[in-house]
Specification:
By secondary structure, this protein is of the alpha+beta class. It has helices at residues 16-19, 28-39, 69-72, 80-95, 124-135, 180-189; strands spanning 45-49, 54-58, 100-104, 116-122, 150-156, 162-172, 200-205, 214-219, 240-241.
C-alpha cells in the first residue's frame, strides 16, 4: 500500500445511516484507512494499489457517493477528485499508462463500503469517441446543460465485448475549483428527483490532457433515455481499465 497525505479535514460525525459509523470494522478499505489514519493524523485521503491502477480512499468514515456531507457538510471542502487526478498523473507518468480516468460506482454496485475513487487507464475507443463528440459540439460546457446532454459511449462489458451505454456528459476546464459531488447533485440529481446513491460518475482527461479540461460523465441504471439509445449504467468499469 502507498499512503500519502497532503490535506487536512475537520472531523465531525456525519449522518451514520448514509455515511457510516467510524466504529464500523466490517469493510476492508475502511479498516485500511483507519489503520493509516492512526499513523497519519489529519489526512483525508490515501492512495492504494488497485487490481489495475490505483484507488483514492477517504480516511474519514464515508460509505460512498450517497453521503450528503460530500455535498454540503464536513467533507464538502475535500477535493477528492483533484487529489486523485494529481496523484494519478504522478503514478501514471512514472509508468506511462497514458490517459487518466477517475470513477466512482453507485452504492449498489461497489465491492467496498468505504468511499474510493478508481484512478485508472481509459479505454482508447472511449477517449476517441468522447473527443469526437466534443469537437462536433455534442458535449456542452455549461453545467446547466449537463442533465440534458445524453451521449452514447461504447465501453466494454465484463467479458471485454463492446457495450454501448447512455451517459450525461459535460466538459469542465478544471477540477480544482469544483466539488464534483455537489456539482452532480445540484445540476443533475436533485432537479430530477433522483438519488445520489444510484449514480456513477467518471472524469476523463479531454483531448490532449489536463490542460484541455475533463469530460465528466454520469449515468445510472434507471437513466431516462429515448428508445433509440441504450440504457444507462451504474458502474465506471465499462469505460475505465480498473479490473
Amino acid at each position: 500500500m502507498t499512503a500519502e497525505n497532503r490535506e487536512t479535514t475537520t472531523l465531525t460525525a456525519p449522518p451514520v445511516a448514509l455515511c457510516g459509523d467510524p466504529k464500523d470494522r466490517d469493510d476492508f478499505l475502511w479498516n485500511m484507512a483507519w489503520d493509516c489514519r492512526e499513523r497519519q493524523i489529519n489526512a483525508f485521503w490515501l492512495m492504494s494499489r488497485g487490481v489495475k491502477g490505483y484507488l483514492l480512499v477517504a480516511t474519514d468514515r464515508i460509505k460512498g457517493i450517497e453521503c450528503p456531507d460530500l455535498v454540503s457538510g464536513v467533507f464538502a471542502a475535500n477535493n477528492y477528485w483533484q487529489v486523485a487526478e494529481e496523484r494519478g498523473a504522478y503514478w501514471f507518468g512514472q509508468q506511462k499508462w497514458g490517459v487518466i480516468g477517475l470513477g466512482i460506482n453507485a452504492a449498489g454496485h461497489r465491492s467496498h463500503e468505504q468511499l474510493h475513487i478508481h484512478v485508472s487507464g481509459v479505454r482508447q475507443d472511449v477517449k476517441n469517441g468522447l473527443d469526437t463528440a466534443y469537437r462536433s459540439g455534442k458535449i456542452p460546457k455549461d453545467l446547466k446543460s449537463w442533465g440534458s446532454s445524453l451521449i452514447t459511449v461504447t465501453g466494454a462489458d465484463q467479458s471485454g465485448a463492446p457495450q454501448a451505454r447512455s451517459y450525461r456528459v459535460v466538459h469542465v476546464d478544471s477540477l480544482k475549483t469544483l466539488n464534483l459531488f455537489k456539482t452532480l447533485n445540484d445540476y443533475v440529481v436533485a432537479p430530477r428527483g433522483e438519488a445520489m446513491g444510484n449514480q456513477t460518475m467518471i472524469a476523463i482527461e479531454a483531448k490532449d490532457g489536463p490542460a484541455d479540461g475533463y469530460y465528466i460523465l454520469n449515468s445510472w441504471d434507471g437513466l431516462p433515455h429515448p428508445s433509440t439509445t441504450p440504457p444507462g449504467i451504474a458502474v465506471c468499469d465499462s469505460l475505465l481499465i480498473c479490473k
